[in-house]
Amino acid sequence: MSKYLLKGGTVVTFVQGESKPRAYKADVLVEGNSITRIEENIAPQPGVEVFDCENKWITPGFVDTHRHLYMTVSRGDHPDISISEYFPKSFWTVQGSLTPEEIGIGTLAGCLDALHNGVTTILDHFNTAHTPAHAEASLRAVRESGARVIWAPARQSSPTQIAPSVEFANEAETEAWQRAKVREWGVDGGKLRPDGRVTLALAYDVSWRGPIEVHKEWLAHARESSVTLITAHVIGASTVTAWRDGGMLGPDVLFSHCNGLGNHTELDAEAWKALKESGTAVGATPVGEIGMSYGNHVVFDAVERGVKAGLGAVSAAQKERSWKDARL
To answer: How far apart are the C-alpha atoms of 162 and 140, rounded to whole Å?
Structure first.
């Protein structure tokens, strides 16, 4: 069993029973996969590798609440592009043509990139699960990576035509295999690795089309299949209130972005109330949101209203470090 000692650093973490983090000088001893001691002046023992952390911070791993891991394979594809340009120029074309092998490479590289930048837990919004082979390639990569991943394959199909109109001719076929796969993946209570390091979630970005009853039934199917979390891209209040009216909100739901809720209209206030009362969380990506013209982030709006909020990096196709979002 490997052992190492982080010596002389400044630990920044929460203390049991306190609501605010604290910073203090301490050493940290790690044995195998567990932190076994956090205290001052731990004497190095034989067989323990020592890291000099003087004048350095020691923090828990960052939790990224919204990232598309597979996009690492297309790093730099859209560093300066608006959301209206993104779909025809990237998502429906460049990303839509990725092979299962490329998805696997991008996902594994994305996990390693996240770990390298201090991110140890990732909510992976995998919105290119176009075929079972694509989905299995992504899942295999997150399992192999060693990262703690909440893996959220998307309930959506790829377009079969984008001009002169966007068509989804494969929707019925895709919906059928995705429904079956969700049940299959959830067979072990949502654990996708025996140690529970990878868990099953669901990305659900199709609630804008079709009757609400269809979406209620699909989310009920997901929850019955041991999906641990449901996530969706959301901009405005109307989506939030539609989910509320459909009884689909809850503490197992995380909405990414929600920039439209910063307009402070009466409907926005209604949406914030629904989020708070249901325990639904918000995952903001400030750098990506500004870069793609979503609008200003709503992290502070969420905190002021008692809504749970987190940060994410979106993807390495724009940038890779969640710390940039925290600084902003």
So the answer is: 30
Domain membership of residue 48 as a residue range: 3-58
Residues 148, 121: contact at Cβ < 8 Å?
yes
Same domain, 288 and 184: yes
- What is the mean pLDDT for each group of 10 consecutive residues in the chain (328 residues)? 95 86 95 93 95 95 94 76 74 82 96 92 96 98 97 93 87 96 98 97 94 97 98 96 98 97 92 98 91 87 96 74 65
How far CA 151 is from CA of 73, 110, 139, 211, 309, in Å, comes to 18, 13, 7, 27, 19
Are residue 88 and residue 173 in the same domain, yes or no?
A: yes
Nearest-angstrom CA–CA distance, 98 and 91: 10
Q: What residues pair up with 31 in beta bridges, in sequence order?
A: 3, 34
Q: What is the DSSP-derived secondary structure letter of residue 324?
A: H
Same domain, 138 and 26: no
